[in-house]
Amino acid sequence: MDPRVSEDRVPSYKKVEEKIREIDNTIIIARIYYIFNHLSSTYRFQLIKKNKMCIVEIPKKLLDNLKKDSNSALEQELGDILNLYVQRSECWAEFEK
Length: 97
Hints:
alpha+beta; 3 helices; 5 strands; 36% helix
């Protein structure tokens, strides 16, 4: 099982939350997991909108770099990743409450 983390342990969490709200302010972040392997590390965000869930993976390196130096190129990259997932209807799956 992937370890669940709280928002205060995620670098640039507020920036991720802000970008998600820019895309669609009805989406909430339900859970965040940290996935570590020898090739790369990512944060997996479970997003909820009404009765659907979408899983978004964001590289740890991007979030670390955003925390160090929040420049427009990094913010654009984050926005592109979020848009790629959130705008695709295939990402959103029904779930039981």
